[in-house]
Amino acid sequence: MLRSMTDITKRDTTAVPRGEALLHDPLLNKGTAFTADERTALGLTGLLPPHVHRLEEQVARVMDNHRNKQTDLERYIHLVSLQDRNETLFYRVVVDHIEEMMPIIYTPTVGQACQQWGHLFRRPRGLYVSWEDRGRVESVLRNWPQRDVRVIVVTDGERILGLGDQGVGGMGIPVGKLSLYTACAGIDPARTLPIMLDVGTENEGYLRDPLYLGLRQKRIRAEPYDAFVAEFVEAVQRVFPDALLQFEDFGNQNAFRLLERWREKVCTFNDDIQGTAAVTLSGIYSALRLTGKTLREQKLLFLGAGEAGIGIGELIVSAMVDEGATAEEARRCCSFVDSHGLVVKSRTGLAPHKLRFAHDLPGAPDLHAALEAIRPTAIVGVSTVPRAFDQRVIEAMSRMNDRPIVFALSNPTSKSECTAEEAYRWSSGRAIFASGSPFPPCRLGDRLFVSGQGNNSYIFPGVGLGVVACRARLVTDRMFSAAARTLASLVLPSDLELGRIYPSLTRIREVSAHIGAAVAEVAYRDGLAGVARPPDLLAMVKAAMWEPVYRKYA
Ligand code: NAI
User: Is 208 helix (H, G, I), strand (E, B) or coil?
Assistant: First the structure.
């Protein structure tokens, strides 16, 4: 049955706790911003220093402390502690300083936090569901205090950013990702839930570390693993039936299979595959505004044929097909190099997800040889191999193209295939460059270059917002293509002039609202929405956005 919007945007009306308990509830706490009347009414008098601060003054104090820290990891710890005390203030800080905060609460700093999870641990956040809980996963989910969860991000920690198996330390990723859902798209933090599925780890260092927080066993694999994930997904449907379930940083041998198994049955997507694809496709659309060429004229060469690479390839194929190409023609425009060289038909033992891009071409042992064979218009690095786009590669691309498209998307920064400065210098300023982790602006002669960050945060928060706002039953590729087109349309001519093919992150909430509306439009068109269509989708989406402002309690 279709529900009204009031049902969707209404918060749980739980009673506000009093006194000390209120100060320890991060969703409700206002710290020194409780007014005199609130302090009297809620039994807080004397529990706080007497001066009442405004939210803006609290933000100034946080920023002072933040900037005085010596390292980004200390800044991360400072911010997470704030989040544990006062979520409204945390999100005000993040939203108002999004460009400064995003590299701290997400990649690259969150990667360091994951690597030291057991050593940094202070307070738990989210749910840890372990292999030991098999057979009673539903009862574990029921321990979560909030019932009305709308977005879940789950990982099993096997492929965290480009850092490999982080075991239970991978929990930093769902936590960080959900912070971005709230900061970038206004998903109510009370309706979000990070989950770690702990099925063990192959990371010997962690297995030997006395402070490691996860199960001390090798990863569960194959059928027992699939059965455990199935128990989890089915339990989520019963306990949190309104939740979008986002899979994050699973190893690629599991990620593709899980996506195929669940995408038509439950409201789910995999950001590494589909979100990355959409943000990259959007970058290509923007780059084409600079080259004046069409998508169908592009030849893309990917370094790395994992979740990100294959996901991007599949979405580009579907976008080219939308523009009139046959699937066969479109696939021929996308070639892949993996650790064994160019992916071609004659290679044996190719993983299933690579087969559809295995072309009938002579083999090439490495990227340099593949470049000469394919002569691409764009190279996309999703390999986790630092420095793989060396001077020879960029110079070859510049020889073949007036404006070579170079995307070095591997995260964190230490894994990037090249830096922004290298791409501009080696191409004499002609490269159209984007990276996965941010690079600072750089100068070449008297020209300033501000490179774009192909950051999934441009896409997934808006997609989640659209899905949640219209209560879509499924998340489809057409929604991601719509998100990519919408994002590219929001890049300003002034961005393009600086070489930036994504909008400024400072506009992220506006960007997410437009993407949300575009995603909802697809949901209504394809009969997937669960609420009656309002006259104005953008207004509907904006009305569903949570703002980090204090509520009045008295
Ligand atoms: P993955 O583990 O699924 O795939 C990595 C691929 O790189 C595999 O196909 C592997 O064979 C290949 N590879 C490894 N060594 C190689 C070598 N020496 N030469 C050529 N290929 C090699 O990982 P996934 O999910 O595809 O991610 C890859 C990278 O992309 C990560 O660093 C990740 O952080 C980054 N990424 C960036 C995003 C963004 O910028 N928006 C989003 C998602 C991922």
Answer: helix
- Where residue 362 falls among pLDDT bands split at 50, 70, 90? very high
Tokens of 230: 């199935």
Within 13 Å of residue 350, how many CA atoms lie on the same side as its CB? Answer: 22
Residue with tokens 């840890």: 128
Every domain of the chain and the residues it spans? 5-10+458-488+508-543, 107-266, 274-455
456 CB under 6 A from ligand 1?
yes
Q: Which atom of ligand 1 is nearest to the CA of 272?
A: 43
Q: Is the CB of 452 under 6 A from ligand 1?
A: no
pLDDT band at 14 (very low <50, low <70, confident <90, very high): low
4 has pLDDT over 90? no
Q: How many angstroms does the Cα of residue 281 sit away from the middle of ligand 1?
A: 17
Share the mean pLDDT of the chain. Answer: 95
Count Cα atoms within 13 angstroms, Cβ side, for 404.
28
H or E, element range at 47? none
CATH match of 107-266 with 3.40.50.970? no
107-266 matches 274-455 in fold: yes
Confidence of residue 5 (pLDDT cuts 50, 70, 90): very low
> Residue 6: is its pLDDT beyond 60?
no
Q: Is 381 in the pocket of ligand 1 (CB under 6 A)?
A: no
The set of catalytic residues is: 106, 177
Which atom number of ligand 1 is nearest to the Cα of residue 437? 40
How is domain 274-455 classified at the CATH fold level?
Rossmann fold (3.40.50)
pLDDT at 540 over 80: yes
Predicted model pTM: 0.93
436 C-beta closer than 6 A to ligand 1: yes
Angle between helices 276-291 and 477-489 (to 10 degrees): 40
